[in-house]
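User: Predict the full complex structure for these chains.
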Amino acid sequence: MLLRLAALFAEYAATIDSDRLEEWPDFFVPECLYKITSADNHKRGYAAGIVYADSQAMLRDRITALRGANIFERHSYRHIIGLPLIRGEESDGVKAETPFLVTRTMRDGTTDLFATGVYLDRVREIEGRLLFAERIVVCDSSRFDTLLVIPL
Amino acid sequence: MLLRLAALFAEYAATIDSDRLEEWPDFFVPECLYKITSADNHKRGYAAGIVYADSQAMLRDRITALRGANIFERHSYRHIIGLPLIRGEESDGVKAETPFLVTRTMRDGTTDLFATGVYLDRVREIEGRLLFAERIVVCDSSRFDTLLVIPL
Amino acid sequence: MLLRLAALFAEYAATIDSDRLEEWPDFFVPECLYKITSADNHKRGYAAGIVYADSQAMLRDRITALRGANIFERHSYRHIIGLPLIRGEESDGVKAETPFLVTRTMRDGTTDLFATGVYLDRVREIEGRLLFAERIVVCDSSRFDTLLVIPL
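Assistant: Here is the predicted structure of the three-chain assembly.
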């Protein structure tokens, strides 16, 4: 299962980093939960999140909005995904916890650390394919001004 | 074995990054060697290290001291562990070499590179569980002012 | 195959980061293609690359030149290799796509992000050993002033 998760996470990251954002919602089940939050808010149990979507349809809307709004030349992003830690395999899916780091490269060529944190996932197998039933993106930083641009 | 090492390293990193430091010594055998050193000192064969502990009890003392001293709000850390390289499986354990990168997020939300380097490990299986007999943390930088705060 | 690729990439990175550059060409088949390019140039289909070598002999020449030219004390580098994504296994080799991040530590102890990007590989098995038939290093940034120093 570790290897299958690793393959899923690698594919997910490559989809975002190569700007194939329209394919991103396909990684989720129709009734999913996707959330970006901060470690502080997560620890305090705040449900809201900075980004919150509880269906694949909302994820699609998000990409449509992003494509419409984004009139400037894009930065590019690079996800480095750490080693997944499987927390349990239950009837509602596999729970895993996986650290990540995302860098951003500006048009002028400078690269900086964009976000670090941990993915808290519940992954289910649907017709032989692994999909996210839940992906909570817990960012180490609480600064979210620019985080809203791309999916993490 | 690669997969088992990957799981061990992921668990180790998650324990530190989620501030469950009291559990950190449990990753080691009672008569262990844990050392943080720099690449320069390691190359020159200096045994001492910046941090040096040759028993699990010393690791526990270290966490107690750290908890007592640490009156300020904590930064948070994120370990990104690279792909492990198995150097040999011998009677005294599996030798592996694994690159790492640690970021630090300050309370104000800024994130920087905290440390990079390589773990030189000797891992033994005790009653079905993998434990560190030796973990030498070789940091690329020789600057250690802040490195003393958390385990790496 | 994912595990074998992971072991290959870990070995490749360790060879560079521990400055055993003379061994670096041994990771390639004699008639290989090694190229460092930028994401922009790659997208536009420019074949040239900033660094271009189409044989193992050229890779060896490159290291010889680098050793000759490099009269200053070396920086050190650390490759963090992400999870490999296998794109297909064909008769001419396994195609894989793997994100990477390289940090550089200066002699004064400061560490920065040196390069991020993705490896586009074609790996072949020759007498039981995996070798690169092709390694295209696509860097996220187009700034290449210092990129020419070490292999990526």
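Residues 2-139 of chain B form a domain with the Nuclear Transport Factor 2; Chain: A, fold (CATH 3.10.450.50).
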